[in-house]
């Protein structure tokens, strides 16, 4: 009885987890879209693991809606800030930050794919690690209006949220404890994120 009472006091109820978790997820994904230093994919996967183990209905659906909405709003805001920088004579720190994270080679590839495939490239850019900013910058250089970018970015954010949520659900289904699923989901997300750069180094070393 003592152990059960201690556990009950240390583990917050689902209602408390949801009241704190969903706003935190929204805020962190939004910040991660604006300043790409937050591992947003790992956050979504971890939230999906926790939701998978909850008994509350629609927990996974709420994770999906929260993550995709925050990603979409963050992307559109960053694009709008980039547009302002493009129109300004002195540019802007947001535009410079985007340029610094979009190597010339990746930007040239993104411009070519954007000219050839159009909006479909936006969807792939959200799923490919480090692919979002080069394609966003290519859209800015192509002078896409914010509305056109938003229309193409919406399915991109939905596909991104589904993909990383499925990773979380996989991790949650393989392990009985939520923390084990979170560790597995984060590890898998980091492996997926690092795979392209590792493959590129292997190819260049040959």
From TrEMBL:
Subcellular location(s) per record: Cell membrane
Primary site of residence: membrane
| Keyword Nucleotidyltransferase among UniProt keywords | no
The keyword Transmembrane helix belongs to this UniProt entry's keyword annotation:
yes
Q: Which UniProt keywords apply?
A: Cell membrane, Membrane, Transmembrane, Transmembrane helix
**Pfam assignment, any one:** VTT_dom
Protein's membrane topology? Multi-pass membrane protein
Q: Name one GO cellular component term.
A: plasma membrane
What residue stretches are annotated with the VTT domain? 46-168
InterPro entries attached to this UniProt entry: DedA-like (IPR032818), VTT_dom (IPR032816)
Q: Which superkingdom is the protein from? A: Bacteria
Transmembrane portions of the chain: 25-52, 58-81, 157-175, 181-199
Name the family: Belongs to the DedA family.
- What protein is this chain from? VTT domain-containing protein
The organism of origin for this protein: Streptomyces regalis
């Amino acid at each position: 009885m003592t152990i059960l009472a201690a556990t009950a006091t240390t583990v917050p109820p689902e209602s408390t987890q949801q009241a704190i978790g969903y706003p935190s997820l929204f805020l962190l994904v939004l910040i991660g879209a604006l300043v790409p230093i937050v591992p947003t994919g790992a956050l979504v996967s971890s939230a999906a693991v926790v939701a998978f183990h909850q008994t509350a209905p629609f927990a996974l659906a709420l994770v999906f809606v929260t993550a995709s909405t925050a990603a979409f709003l963050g992307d559109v805001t960053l694009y709008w800030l980039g547009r302002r920088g493009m129109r300004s004579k002195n540019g802007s720190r947001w535009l410079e930050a985007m340029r610094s994270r979009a190597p010339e080679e990746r930007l040239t590839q993104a411009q070519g794919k954007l000219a050839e495939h159009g909006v479909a490239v936006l969807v792939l850019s959200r799923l490919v690690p480090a692919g979002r900013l080069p394609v966003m910058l290519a859209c800015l250089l192509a002078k896409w209006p914010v509305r056109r970018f938003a229309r193409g970015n919406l399915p991109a954010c939905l596909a991104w949220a589904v993909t990383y949520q499925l990773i979380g659900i996989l991790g949650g289904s393989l392990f009985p404890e939520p923390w084990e699923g979170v560790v597995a989901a984060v590890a898998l997300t980091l492996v997926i994120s690092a795979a392209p750069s590792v493959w590129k180094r292997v190819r260049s070393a040959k």
